[in-house]
Amino acid sequence: MASVRDPWLPDRLLRTERDALMPLLRGAPEASFDLRTACPGWTARQVLAHCAAALVRIVEGRLEEGVFLPEANAADVAEREPWPLGRILDELERGLTEAGPVIAATEDGTLDAVALGEWVHAGDVREAFGVPGAYRGAGLEFALPLLAVTSRRRETPALVGVLPDRTEPVCLGDTVAGRPPARFHGEASTLIRLYAGRPLVGTRYTLTGATEQELLVYR
Q1: SS3 breakdown of the chain: % helix, strand, coil, rounded to 5?
Q2: Cys-Cys with 57: which of 34, 62, 112, 127 at CB 3.0–4.6 Å?
Q3: Cβ proximity of 195 and 156 under 8 Å
Q4: pTM of the shown model
Q5: What is d(CA 120, CA 139) in angstroms, rounded to the nearest whole number?
Q6: Separation of alpha carbons 138 and 133, rounded Å
């Protein structure tokens, strides 16, 4: 998997996720948005409000210091509590459509991880809704190479992932002197869960040479 940043990879991921996620959200009963997600304390509605706020901040260039810290995220979600659900979904769709080109224009790629996080949060909502394969779908093809870049940027230890549906292993993280790469055997969606800190109940995988905590890209 290429280690050189593709600046348009986040845009492809966000647009692919928009096309998959928005019809599901637009057609879901409003009561579904009160379901709890894997994000502690947040319902599906609150997760989507956070996603919408983060993307539109990128679109509008409102990226003051600390903008993505937990306190700022909570404030963005609280601001949207009085909004009608449709307004949140409209903002989310705008962000998924317009944020990619802005992210591509950042030379250092610091916002790439936001796009990956948006895709993971979409999986959180699908899982809350009971949709099978919550962290799979068409976006996975873009999420995996974006995870490779993000895991190196976040300086997680090197790992070789052997996935049953891929002919070549996935290489993640940074080489650590004197430490051989860790090894992972399991599904691609489980690998995403592992790095994103999502519940692993019901999954099957083996991990040697690293701990789950060392691999987290979102803390």
Answers
A1: 55, 10, 35
A2: 62
A3: yes
A4: 0.94
A5: 10
A6: 11
